[in-house]
Amino acid sequence: MYPTIIETADIGDFSSFLGALNEAHRDLRGLQPFWRGHAHIDWPLTPEVFRTPAWGHHYPEVTLIRTFMGQAESRSQRCPAHDDFVGWLILARHFGLPTRLLDWSMSPLVALFFTVENQNDADGALWALDPGGLNQGMIGEDRQLIVDDAAVRELVSLAFEPDADVHLGASTRAAGRVLAVGAREIDPRVMVQQGAFTIHGDRTDIATKGVPWLVGFRVKREAKEILRENLRQLGITRSGLFPDLGSLALDLKHKRWRT
Questions:
Q1: Average confidence score pLDDT of the chain
Q2: Helices (H) and strands (E) in the chain, counts
Q3: Domain count of the chain?
Q4: CA pair distance 133, 116, nearest whole angstrom
């Protein structure tokens, strides 16, 4: 089990969820955390591009993002400028492309939604991250970074650089480095999900570190159904977080209608 999971504060109902929020704020200096939800408690806090997919080979990071850029403009009117690499990474990640970004939210309700939406046969995890504490530990900056900071741009540039020698030269500086950054609202999904992100230098799982800027809570699998209903009653639904017709139809399909 991850050392950052607080074993004495499991979430089994909405009351214990509120208790976990208070616990996180106490442990994380009373500051506003980033929140992330995992449907399975054993999932790592590692960006998807660094995970090994089912076929057993690594994702070709540069090819993925460059191909996405080449084909996105015919499918969306909201594409960033061609040299806006941060914008492209945020857009690609929020539409499911594996990147070196890990999605977080400023809202614990949004994170809880992703924790309980699926995987009813497994406990989930709700993560809280102190962005300033993380950045202080990584680069000595006790603040949430912005996308224009040089340390952020350095990690972003690696996602677009095809030269293997550049990656090799940066590997020592980037090893284990993770930075917490506020997102730009370049798409409605980022806005409604109150997005933020961490950008990672490699596949290091930050949940294994037992660090003071990260805490996690077990979400019991038997509680997921009632927590989903609690969230629906509070207006936290898939069609609200993914504002498209497919999500609207799915929410309407599962709504309890009076006949």
A1: 91
A2: 11, 6
A3: 1
A4: 27
